Amino acid sequence: MSSRGQSALEYVETYGWAILAVMVVGIALNEMGYLKMGGETISQSGFGKLKPFLSSTSLTTGGEFTTVFTNTLGEKITLTTTGLTITVGGVACTGTDVTPLQVSPGNQFKITGTGCPTGNDGDPYDLTITVPYTINVGNVETEKQDSGKIHGAYT
Question: Residue 96 in contact with residue 132, Cβ under 8 Å?
């Protein structure tokens, strides 16, 4: 009976080491970028009251960013370019703009950025946007901001 137990233990040890070796090689290849999936899937995280319209979002290989947001706040907001930031991989885009500056509930506005870091077609990017705005509550202007991340691939 003890020989069967030893045989089973040797079997588990042998295949266990083989599986561990394959996992280490797979992790190493992934970390070096050889298993990069790329693709054109765009996703977002964060963004409480201002929602990006992902099908209109793009970051070109030349570093030009465009997206459209929807005001889901339920109040009219006033946007400003002061404090509007777009960063890709921690590097800020040099020129940012937003139009129009006043947006009613449910309406959309466009944000653009130029001078963003460049990349190759299909390379993934992680972009962070901070959008400052003011709302008028009880005749008092209140400054707010919304921020989040957009993940996609250069086009």
Answer: no
> Based on the domain organization, do 23 and 55 belong to the same domain?
no
pLDDT tens figures, 7-55: 778 878 888 888 999 999 988 887 776 666 555 577 788 888 888 888 8
Per-residue pLDDT of 74-102, as tens digits, reads: 888 888 877 788 888 888 888 788 887 88
- Note down the domain range covering 94: 43-153
DSSP notation for 39-57: ----EEEE-SSEEEEEEEE
